[in-house]
Each structure stands twice: as C-alpha cells, then as structure tokens.
Amino acid sequence: MASIATKLSGILSGLPQHAKPKLQVFLKYAKVELTPPTPADIPAIRQEFNKIVSGARTGAWKNLTVREAWLNSLITAEVIFWFYIGECIGKRHIVGYNV
After folding, report:
1. Do 97 and 89 contact (CB within 8 A), yes or no?
2. Could you tell me how far CA 51 lies from the centroid of its own chain?
3. CA 3 to centroid of chain Cα atoms
4. How much is the pTM?
5. pLDDT, averaged across the chain
6. Of 44, 41, 42, 60, nearest in space to 52 by CA
7. CA distance 82 to 84
8. d(CA 85, CA 79)
9. Which of 68, 70, 73, 81 is disulfide-compatible with 64, CB 3.0–4.6 A?
10. Alpha-carbon Rg of the chain, whole angstroms?
11. Are 7 and 15 in contact (CB under 8 A)?
C-alpha cells in the first residue's frame, strides 16, 4: 500500500509540469476561437458571406479541391449538429425528435 501511495504522489507532483504547456496552448487558441465577433468583424463576415453566395450562383463550388470540399462538409455537419444539440437543450429532452 505504501508503494502505491508513493507512486501516486510522484505522479501527482509531476502533473502540473505536464499540464501547464498544454493549458497555455489551449488558452492561446481559446482567446481567438471562442470570443464572439466584435462590431469591427461584421464587414469581414458580410464579405465572406457574399463570397459564398456569389460562388454558389456562379458554380465556383464545382472547382473546389477534395480537401476544401471535405472541410466545408465537416463545417456544415458541425453547424447542423450544434443546432440540434441546442434544440435538445432548449427542450430539455430528446423526446419528440426522430434521432
């Protein structure tokens, strides 16, 4: 039992040293990715949205690479999943959905 306690204390003492770099990287990306858009970001958002709409109208989506198409489909799936998760949270149960 003493050997288990010694090993556990050794693991726990080294935990902050291993977790600190990973936490710093997480916080670096969290500051950028998890902040809501500011009013200064709205023109860029509008420009990107207009680019998507014009690309859909002109057929530019046919010239995407496989990688770009795959990433676009993953982003679309993520948005749809978050919508349904939000709906389930709002209703507070899954009953009533054809899942």
Report:
1. no
2. 22
3. 42
4. 0.50
5. 84
6. 60
7. 5
8. 10
9. 68
10. 23
11. no
Largest CA distance in the chain: 72
Query: Which residue has 């902050």 as its token pair?
Result: 16
Q: How far apart are CA 88 and CA 57, in angstroms?
A: 34
What is the number of other CB atoms lying within 10 angstroms of the CB of residue 13?
9
Token look-up 């970001």 returns 41
- Tell the residue number behind the tokens 């149960």, with chain if given: 93
- Rounded CA-CA distance 9/1 in Å is 12
Buried residues in 51-65 as b, exposed as e (16+ CB within 10 A)? eeeeeeeeeeeeeee
Residue-wise pLDDT for 44-53, tens only, equals 999 989 988 9
pLDDT of 35 reads 86
DSSP state, residue 96: T
Q: How far is CA 5 from the centre of its chain?
A: 39
